[in-house]
Amino acid sequence: MAASDGKAEITTKDPRALEREVEARRAALAGTIDELTDRLAPKTIAQRSLVQVRGRVQSFAFDHRGGLRVERVAAVGVAVLGVTTFVVVRAVRKRR
Q1: Alpha carbon distance 26, 28 (integer Å)
Q2: What is the radius of gyration, based on Cα positions, of the chain?
Q3: What is the pTM for the complete model shown?
Q4: pLDDT tens, residue by residue, 42-86
Q5: CA distances (Å), 59 to each of 48, 63, 69, 93, in order?
Q6: How far is CA 24 from CA 18, 20, 67, 80, in A?
């Protein structure tokens, strides 16, 4: 089997060799389809996304030596506290 311009060419006229080549291509195609099916499965996509999010959180909250980045964690805490305070104050004012 030779390839030119990304297309496979059949290089033999022997029927048995052609059958073997067709079976080999069929097996390769089946493997490719199985791999794509696995990559596109919702469960696999969700797992990959979860790993990416965990990595981002780790790199945000911890330095390269594993030490906690206190200033970043504190900034997030202050932001959460600020948003919570805003929501509570707004809810209390609406009730009046």
Answers
A1: 5
A2: 29
A3: 0.52
A4: 999 999 999 999 999 999 999 989 999 999 999 999 999 999 999
A5: 17, 6, 9, 39
A6: 10, 6, 52, 58
Under a CB-based contact definition with an 8 Å cutoff, are residues 12 and 21 in contact?
Answer: yes
- Is the distance from CB of 1 to CB of 8 less than 8 angstroms? yes
The residue type at 19: E
Backbone conformation region of residue 30, classed left if phi is above 0, alpha if psi is from -120 to 50, else beta = alpha
What pLDDT, on the 0 to 100 scale, is given for residue 96?
A: 79
* Sequence-separated (6 or more) residues with CB below 8 Å from residue 8: 1, 2, 25
Q: Are strands 7-9 and 2-4 parallel, antiparallel or unpaired?
A: antiparallel
